[in-house]
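Progress note, sequence design subtask.
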């Protein structure tokens, strides 16, 4: 499903919390995954991941390619010249096409590309100033803050880390701040895709999500844009409650998530964009 990103100075997603707070969990998660992948032998590289049709090697090829995109997007954004590379982005076809176009690289070459791009990205995040986190850069949604770009990158890598590790029978580490940032991201992605795809154009909606282990609580408000509140709006009804990792995996289309019909708008955009609905 082709997405029509929103470019310009009115981002489709905004976050109200400390924009720079995503840096530490994003760096930690990337470096942890790099250590995991660096220990792979031939069997681990060729093992099937949770991503249909992708081996672990394919997932790492994908992550290296998106690392390079995030780096370019953030660098251009901090220069005040945000890119417009994803005007024809398809969340299903585009990543699959890039993995296929990579051919048949050796595991050593895949590892080198992933480690190099990972360290370049984490080094870049450490150089961002407080003011730069609010500057606009490109994500699959269009122009959003650099903070929102990094949140998207963290969510994507966090889910793919589990795609790799759970497929091997390993249980990834759960860090509260990583879960918090990734959960706020994916909870906003569904409504944001709905806005961009035209299914939520004129609707005004609010919902609170609360989780345990770790505790996360925030409110999503939709009115042609998606606003993620730092805390909970007492007037907004609780739409989702459960264990944090289960909710995060459910919103990310990895495991079943039961929602009452009135809250389907939280996931409908992602289901449509990723053709899983």
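Output:
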């Amino acid at each position: 499903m082709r997405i029509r990103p929103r470019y310009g100075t009115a981002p489709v997603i905004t976050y109200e919390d400390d924009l720079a707070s995503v840096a530490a969990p994003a760096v930690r998660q990337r470096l942890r995954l790099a250590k995991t992948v660096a220990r792979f032998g031939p069997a681990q590289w060729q093992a099937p991941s949770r991503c249909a049709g992708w081996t672990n090697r394919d997932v790492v090829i994908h992550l290296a390619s998106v690392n390079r995109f995030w780096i370019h997007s953030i660098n251009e954004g901090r220069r005040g010249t945000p890119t417009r590379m994803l005007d024809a982005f398809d969340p299903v076809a585009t990543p699959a096409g890039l993995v296929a176009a990579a051919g048949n690289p050796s595991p050593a070459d895949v590892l080198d590309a992933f480690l190099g791009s990972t360290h370049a990205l984490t080094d870049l995040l450490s150089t961002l100033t407080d003011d730069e986190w609010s500057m606009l850069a490109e994500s699959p949604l269009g122009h959003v803050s650099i903070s929102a770009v990094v949140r998207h990158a963290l969510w994507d890598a966090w889910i793919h880390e589990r795609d790799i590790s759970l497929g091997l029978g390993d249980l990834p580490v759960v860090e509260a701040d990583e879960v918090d940032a990734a959960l706020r991201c994916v909870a906003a992605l569904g409504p944001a895709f709905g806005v961009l795809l035209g299914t939520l154009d004129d609707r005004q909606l609010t919902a609170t999500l609360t989780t345990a282990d770790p505790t996360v609580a925030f409110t999503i408000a939709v009115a042609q844009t998606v606003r993620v509140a730092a805390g909970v709006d007492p007037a907004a009804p609780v739409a989702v409650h459960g264990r944090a990792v289960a909710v995060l995996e459910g919103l990310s289309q990895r495991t079943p998530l039961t929602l009452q019909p009135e809250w389907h708008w939280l996931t409908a955009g992602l289901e449509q964009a990723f053709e899983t609905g």
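The CA atoms of residues 70 and 153 lie 7 Å apart. Work on this subtask will continue into the next period as scheduled.
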